[in-house]
Amino acid sequence: MRDLEDDLTRTFRAAGLAAPDPEPGFPAALTARRRRRTRTRMAGAFAAVVAVAAGMAVLASPLVRQPDLAQPLGPAPLPTGSLPTVDLSLAKPNRDLWPDAFVELPLRLPDGRRYSVQAELGGDAYLVVPWNDQRRFPPVVFNARTGVARELGTVPKAGFLVYDQAGTYLTEHYIAWVMAAQDSHGARYVEVWSVPRDGGAAVRRAMFGPGDMSVSVAEVGGVFYASIEPFTGEGAVYRIPDDGEPQKVPGSEGYTLRYGPWAVHRSAWSTESNTENSAAAAVETPGFWNVATGERRTPRALSGVTLIECDPRVCVGRSGGSLVSYGIDGSRPLRTADGAVDPAGTDACDSCPPRINVFYDDSYGRFLQLRLKSGVYLWDRKTNTVGMQQDGSSGNGDVIDMGQPGGKQHLLLLSRIR
Q: Is residue 9 predicted with pLDDT exceeding 70?
């Protein structure tokens, strides 16, 4: 049975921004935006993403070069019957399958605050976000061996009704984070901060506002980018110079950074229909645009496969009762055994069409997390093996939250899977 503290942890992780006495619509709007952007993360949603996407989902490492797929190619043939197959019903627990990738961390920081792990930094160091039942704080580098927590940013002692962390990113050269602020006069802003990964002083890179908005951040070669999503109206992507005002990237209106520098137009955020109709509505094929390099990628369709979701490297679709994963260019398709797609619908709505949540790793293009009715699965495309977490979190990122049994944080680190 879960204790009250564990329930509080899970509830808080799904709650979004919270603040003492802001205007009534501010936290609700922020929470609604976060829930839309994370595509129905469940109650145990992986806090490492922290309403961004995922995102904390930043592609810090150079990608394997793929063809510039600006125009979709014709559907590729899919020899479904002869594809390499993995049986989800035979999945072993994650910890049993990858014991070397499992770690335990203290439940609290030295000052007593709870925290969520964003990324592994090496040498027993982790990028974490402290929180209490009222707010989330700027990120901290926590050394699990020495017990030392190094604060990366500070919270103003006065002048703000709200000053909450709203996104953390481990990029190529920096640790970056976003703060959502509401000043004492009621004006709302979003600030972008960064600090070099190898140490140094925190710098406020940009401030956007006033207004209600969400901001996602990426960095490529020392250059920062931020996408702005007003709660009403159309946003855009901005290049943030070292000095001066942010500059709108030409042609970026309506685009949002979702996977590091890869942006997607908001009209093409594809997930399967969540309507209560008997048939799932068709989804629009997303087009990915790297705002730093200009490269564009459009997923290639596979004959007989209905698209569910893609990132800039990997797609997942359904073919009958199976799931099929494949490279964005149609390469190396793999499938699950029949029965992965439950025709009975979801726990939330037995009359709804089957709904599948797909989450990606940050930097490998190797791992997929699948939240199905039967559990949360981790699919390793390199070895075509699958692990399972019966009751756990899911979310984009390389750190899998496996709960807090025994008063410890239990994590699976994808970087340690060989």
A: no
